[in-house]
Amino acid sequence: MTAMGKTRRSVSLALCGAVVAVTALLTGPAAQAGPVPARAAEVTAGAGGGIGWRPAATGSTARFRGLAAVSRDAAWVAGSRGTVLRTADGGRAWRDVSPPGAGELEFRDVEAFDERHAVVLAIGEGDASRILRTEDGGSTWTEGFRNPDPRAFYDCLAFFDRRHGLAVSDPVDGRFRVLSTADGGRTWRVLPDAGMPEALPGEAGFAASGQCLVTSGPRDVWLATGGGAAGRVLHSGDRGLTWTAADAVMPAGDPARGVFGLAFRNRAHGLAVGGDYRADQPSPHAAAVTRDGGRTWRPAAAPPPAYRSGVAWLPHSRSAALAVGPTGTDLTTDGGRTWRTVDTGSYDTVDCAPDFGCWASGAQGRVARLVAHGGAGHVREP
């Protein structure tokens, strides 16, 4: 075996070991004890061990609905008042890399390729919707797109690779509008809408977690919707040129209800979360699962107990995922059929990197990284 082959094999074995360790923590006796309360310093799992969020002090009070996990050490967050932060040391220190003059913008999505290259989306009507790009860790930014149409309102963006990506707007002239880039976000063009199904009356996307538009592989992309008679998931297998729509069996029929977040671990297996974002309204069916690429969806047998806006598969797992929302974090270990609450802290979105760097973010500058706790509350990395 070559040196390169040995290196790849050792990395693979290490990842497999990490999967086993994390799965054991997720499904062990301590994990069955019930939800873990959020605390100011960190979430502890008690003497028996488990997992939890370790909050990071960002020094910001912005609401971070945009999140991109690069690794266990590196992550980007984007939020209100034009705020963009990044860390390169596991969350111990955060650098404010907000674009100059962006204080009036609302960033709701960030896609990062590494510690230096990232693209952020600002939402809003007309020219409030913008896309900016950095190649030097946020020291400088360039504007790749400023929306010229007062009827458009962009919600989310997603990339297939470092060059090809899409951004989506609420319907214009009865259909969702899609932007496309082939140069990493430097330039964008509106795709023709002939292959886009007509939107339902009142249907729109939710800019709640940066997860209303997600990709898997080089060509597949899914769009989550709400506000109409049905909460739907639209799928394209050709990078946004043609789409099909399916009912995601979520609460709908109201502007506050629908599908808020999606996650696909491959082009077939996906999760959807959502509900009713109003705190005084129940969300009895807040999660659904697909095994056929989004053609059909089934409601979770035991869904999260309340509205959830973000969802992410745990890396290298076929069955484990996390969902987050204002009232807590839920875990599934059976591919989305059943969920249970493991944390009661408030987060809007969640994202995981291949090296088990899982991060969550939300209101009041809240950002946290997933950690494993051994006996007597000792913290160890997944």
Tally the beta strands. 29
Q: Could you say which overall geometry the principal axes of the C-alpha atoms support? A: globular
Whole-Å distance between the termini?
29 Å
What fraction of residues sit in β-strands?
A: 35-45%
Mean pLDDT: 88
How helical, in percent, are the residues?
Answer: under 10%
Uncertain segments are 1-49, 375-380
- Count up the helices: 1
Question: What structural class is derived from the secondary structure elements?
Answer: mainly beta
Order of helices and strands: HEEEEEEEEEEEEEEEEEEEEEEEEEEEEE
**How many whole angstroms does the radius of gyration measure?**
20 Å
Strand count, sense and barrel status of the largest sheet are: 5 strands, antiparallel
List the helices and strands and how they pair.
Elements: H1 3-27, E1 50-56, E2 64-69, E3 75-79, E4 84-87, E5 95-96, E6 106-112, E7 118-123, E8 130-134, E9 142-146, E10 154-159, E11 165-172, E12 175-181, E13 189-190, E14 213-216, E15 220-224, E16 232-236, E17 244-247, E18 257-264, E19 270-276, E20 287-290, E21 298-299, E22 310-313, E23 321-325, E24 328-332, E25 340-343, E26 349-352, E27 358-361, E28 367-373, E29 379-380
Antiparallel strand pairs: 1-28, 2-3, 3-4, 4-5, 6-7, 7-8, 8-9, 10-11, 11-12, 12-13, 14-15, 15-16, 16-17, 18-19, 19-20, 20-21, 22-23, 23-24, 24-25, 26-27, 27-28, 28-29
Structure notes:
With 382 residues, the protein is mainly β. The chain has one helix at residues 3-27; strands at residues 50-56, 64-69, 75-79, 84-87, 95-96, 106-112, 118-123, 130-134, 142-146, 154-159, 165-172, 175-181, 189-190, 213-216, 220-224, 232-236, 244-247, 257-264, 270-276, 287-290, 298-299, 310-313, 321-325, 328-332, 340-343, 349-352, 358-361, 367-373, 379-380. Strand 15 (220-224) and strand 16 (232-236) form a beta hairpin. The longest helix is centred in the N-terminal third of the chain and has 25 residues, at 3-27. It is globular and about 45 Å long. It starts with a helix and ends with a strand.
